[in-house]
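R.M. (postdoc): so does anyone remember the format we settled on? I'll just put the structure tokens first.
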């Protein structure tokens, strides 16, 4: 056989040994757009995101677990952070933005549309009945979130005490920001005998110039709204504060409630509950329920403002953390402070659930629907079906 006849076979063999091509920014955006448009149910979205990332070979199983550990150690929605982290590993800062916005866009558009529909039809009897059914489902979701946080972070007497103390302090009027800060300060003392295992991340340098440019754009936004639209400036800061207190998605519940209902009194507890119910109807990150708050205050521009600032601080924290994550997650005082913070979250969510339950006008039908929703979610029924059943039963019975 001549050398010329062997060359095609040699070329084919060498091609199969080449590593997969680096994905384009459009590929990253489309992948997370698809996940954000089809995934429901908070933690239940994680397996779907993992499957999409692993089947494309973007991260291996160990790389996904390590990235997840970092995202859970900082504020913000875990899934939003994981989308940004994956994009960061693949294509740097532009990739992080592509993953971040791809995952957020479907839910942001849907919750804004539902918010507009809700406000247009407020007072209509059918809407009132549907929201009554959804409100009962929301309390079931809160109950399961408390149970989930309890299992993950409140094991052992010290964590149980911190969970209960956080609940009592919130109900007595203490801001969740002070509760979380206090937990972070006492965590290294309370958990001084605990040692967390180290985490090893691959090197993922973040371009300082790009991060500074984004920070400058954020500051320009704040300066412009401070001068021209003080309400949007206040809303931006309020959502940013809520983001900094949100761990694991559902952790935003207490922070948003405090900002929207207690502190600024932008809405009643019942309206807030309706908004959180609508957030369950949409796929993607639950934290985009903030768009409902923004729409209620300032229409479409308010929804856009809330949608941007409910994730902005945690995005910058991720960009600043990843290059130093190996040292940070290996520093035991930080891990103990984090343990203190995570121990409080179940208590804060429980406190919000108690406040919302107090604001409802109960009947035996609403109580039965709440219990049924809790059981269904515990049995891993897809949350979208639980929500739709709550709407249907509300229209039929309430």
């Amino acid at each position: 056989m001549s050398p010329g006849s062997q060359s095609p076979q040699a070329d084919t063999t060498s091609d199969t040994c080449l590593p997969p091509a680096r994905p384009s920014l459009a590929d990253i955006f489309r992948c997370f757009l698809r996940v954000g448009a089809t995934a429901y149910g908070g933690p239940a979205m994680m397996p779907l995101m993992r499957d999409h990332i692993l089947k494309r070979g973007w991260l291996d199983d160990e790389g996904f677990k390590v990235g997840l550990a970092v995202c859970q150690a900082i504020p913000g929605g875990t899934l939003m952070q994981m989308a940004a982290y994956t994009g960061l590993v693949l294509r740097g800062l532009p990739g992080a933005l592509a993953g971040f916005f791809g995952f957020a866009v479907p839910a942001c558009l849907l919750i804004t549309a539902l918010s507009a529909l809700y406000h247009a039809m407020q007072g209509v009897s059918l809407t009132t009945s549907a929201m009554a059914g959804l409100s009962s489902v929301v309390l079931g979701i809160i109950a399961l979130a408390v149970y989930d946080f309890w299992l993950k972070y409140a094991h052992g007497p010290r964590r149980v005490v911190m969970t209960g103390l956080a609940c009592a302090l919130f109900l007595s009027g203490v801001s969740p920001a002070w509760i979380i800060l206090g937990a972070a300060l006492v965590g290294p003392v309370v958990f001084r005998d605990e040692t967390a295992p180290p985490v090893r991340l691959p090197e993922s340098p973040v371009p300082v110039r790009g991060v500074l440019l984004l920070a400058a754009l954020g500051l320009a936004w704040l300066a412009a709204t401070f001068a021209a639209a003080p309400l949007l400036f206040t809303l931006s800061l309020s959502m940013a504060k809520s983001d900094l207190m949100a761990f694991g998605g559902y952790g935003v519940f207490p922070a948003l409630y405090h900002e929207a209902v207690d502190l600024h009194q932008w809405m009643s507890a019942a309206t807030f509950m309706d908004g959180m119910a609508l957030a369950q109807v949409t796929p993607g990150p639950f934290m985009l329920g903030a768009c409902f708050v923004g729409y209620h205050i300032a229409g479409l521009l308010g929804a856009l403002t809330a949608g941007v600032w409910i994730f902005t601080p945690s995005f910058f924290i991720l960009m600043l953390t990843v290059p130093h994550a190996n040292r940070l997650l290996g520093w035991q005082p930080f891990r103990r402070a984090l343990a203190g913070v995570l121990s409080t979250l179940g208590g804060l969510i429980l406190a919000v659930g108690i406040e919302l339950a107090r604001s409802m006008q109960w009947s035996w039908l609403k109580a039965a629907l709440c219990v049924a929703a809790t059981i269904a979610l515990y049995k891993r029924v897809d949350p979208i079906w639980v929500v739709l059943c709550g709407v249907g039963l509300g229209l039929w019975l309430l």
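R.M.: ...and that's the designed sequence above, right after the tokens. Also worth knowing: Residues 78-120 form the longest helix (43 residues). Confidence is low (pLDDT under 50) at residues 1-19.
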